[in-house]
Amino acid sequence: MAFENMSEKQAAAKASDLRKQLNKWADEYYTFDAPSVEDSVYDQTYQQLVDLENQFPQIVTADSPTQKVGDHTLPGFTKVSHEIPMLSLGDVFSKEELAEFVNRLSENDSVAFDYNCELKIDGLAINLRYENGLFVQGSTRGNGQIGEDITRNLKTIKSIPQKLSRPINIEVRGECYMPKESFAKLNDQRQLNGEEPFANPRNAAAGSLRQLDPRVTRSRHLSTFMYNVADIDDLQSDTQSGMLEELKALGFTINSDYKVAHNMTDIDDYVDQYKDLRDGLPYGIDGIVIKVNSLPLQRSLGATVKVPRWAIAYKFPPEEVQTVVRDIEWTV
Ligand code: NAD
Q: What is d(CA 183, CA 283) in angstroms, rounded to the nearest whole number?
């Protein structure tokens, strides 16, 4: 969107309005797991703010949604500090923008490198900490620096190993999600009970994980796919795809539908393949994540305050959102 006819004062006022609106939606989404608008509406408004701030860099504020991850944590949960921040992902909505991202990275490097293509699981990010191979603490991403301690709830999820195959210290990151079947059953049950159904599996998973009673979490049949570690020095592999296999060997559930792409054609094929397969998968995906496969290269590319420079999410067009609902038992 072009804002060239605006003065700096008008731009600052418009940005302030957009931030207020986005912060309100973010609060509904992250804090209460109850969005009042579809993700695509949030994404388009966010993009307006990005365009405006790109055109008037002097109006960027440190607390702008473009400069921070997620939102507040809930009272009732102990806070966990993430020594290594949990970031979000930059996103693109067209193949042209995706090719621009790949070309930009390739320009900076004379040697061709591979990408690992992964499914973008529609859940919420979790961090699992192991000491001597034993699961000791699990948390949400929160604002990226501070999350919520949800260890007791995560212990009810079968796909999370309590003990790893090796007695190592490691923090593993990934996505907790609600399978489509569990989501359908849960919403049927809620309707029978006269309760409002959840808006989508992502919000159902988030609401189910942030429960004060772990028995409620257990009854919701959540699952996980792990895809990252806080510190790559804790690994033996030096590629993203190798990391996934190493996590699997340690006992984690990974999503095995990943593919190493050697060029843009491979990436395009992967995107097309999963656009078609998406509806038939037993869990929700809202896009594809493309990551530089070399872990040393990931490290040298680094990150902004909000997103890694070595990965991008290609978001699929939106699916229907059914209803908006709150599931905040801790306030009653
Ligand atoms: P995001 O969900 O767009 O992408 C980042 C997240 O993707 C990561 O944190 C991780 O949890 C997840 N992910 C899933 N599979 C992954 C994989 N294979 N590899 C790496 N990460 C993977 O970003 P976000 O910051 O979590 O949330 C922003 C998005 O949330 C917005 O784009 C919008 O769609 C939605 N949102 C909606 C509202 C609303 O009111 N509807 C409000 C705020 C945010």
A: 9
pLDDT at 4: 73
* Strand 79-81 versus strand 124-131 pairing type: unpaired
Q: What is the pLDDT of residue 332?
A: 20
Nearest CA to ligand 1 atom 15: 120
Amino acid at 272: D
Bridge partners (DSSP) of residue 128 are 138, 172
70 Cα nearest atom in ligand 1: 25
Please give the pLDDT value at position 327. 38
22 Cβ contact list (under 8 Å, min separation 6): 42, 45, 46, 49, 65
Residues of the chain with pLDDT under 50: 320-332
Here the contacts of 245-251 (C-beta below 8 Å, separation 24 or greater) are 247/172, 249/165, 250/161, 250/164, 250/165, 250/166, 250/168, 250/170, 250/172, 251/161, 251/163, 251/164, 251/165
| C-beta separation of 155 from 322 below 8 A | no
From the alpha carbon of 258, which atom of ligand 1 is closest? 18
* DSSP state at residue 281: S
Residue 120 appears among annotated catalytic residues: yes
Burial of 25 (0-12, 13-18, 19+ CB in 10 A): buried
**pLDDT value of position 319:** 59
Please classify residue 103 by burial: count the beta carbons closer than 10 Å to its beta carbon, then call 0-12 exposed, 13-18 middle and 19+ buried. exposed
Report how far residue 38's alpha carbon sits from residue 92's, in angstroms, rounded to the nearest whole number.
Answer: 17
Average pLDDT, the chain: 92
DSSP state, 156?
Answer: T
Q: Which atom of ligand 1 is nearest to the CA of 43?
A: 32
**d(CA 91, ligand 1 centre) in Å:** 9
Q: Whose CA is nearest to atom 13 of ligand 1?
A: 120
Distances (CA, A) of 237 to 234, 241, 277: 9, 9, 30
Closest protein CA for atom 25 of ligand 1: 88
Say what the pLDDT of residue 30 is.
87
